[in-house]
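Appendix C reproduces, verbatim, an entry submitted by the partner laboratory led by Prof. M.T., so that reviewers can inspect both the input and the predicted structure.
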Amino acid sequence: MNRVIETICQYQIIPVASIEKAEDSLYVAEALLKAGMPLIEVTFRTQSAAESIKMICKRFPEMIVGAGTVFTTRQAQSAIDNGAQCIVAPGLNEEVVRYAQSRDIIPFPGVMTPTEIEKACNLGLQYVKFFPAEAAGGIKLLKAFSGPYKHMLFMPTGGINASNVKSYLDLPNVFACGGTWMVDKSLIAGRDFARITALTEEALNKVHKDN
């Protein structure tokens, strides 16, 4: 199994961070590592995304760093050139998927419908993002997908929080969940990195308490 997927499947939750100032990226990464979390998805919703990815990868090579909210091959190239080890997108852009595959980087495109799932299958994908999870139908829809798409595994993102993450992860076709609550942008802006560590520890304990 690919190291990125293996690590994600092991920890089962991915902190999704929008970092406005690149200099804050190292503090966010350090806060996550203190909690025992070696994963982070840095979204391309800010101008500092590529630089943040570069800084984290250089300082903390033990972390799996993904790039999120990737819409274009140009963004994918920038992310990968700066060290991103996976590409995450809200939708299924076939050009982005094929570009990531050409660079031997795992893509996790977003799907919401059977048609999109089948397009992902045709691209050779088994692991995909399910977005926006709660708005699209949440657990009920994922249960419905498990019938015809037994081979597909999903990473719900969008509306995932401390109160519902375990319910999603209990589904057999869910391999991980992405969420912002551990690294909320207000915590980053307020430089409350201790709170990021505490929330991440709580999340990991909740997810793995019965394992």
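DSSP finds eleven helices and nine strands in the chain. Additional entries are available on request from the coordinating office.
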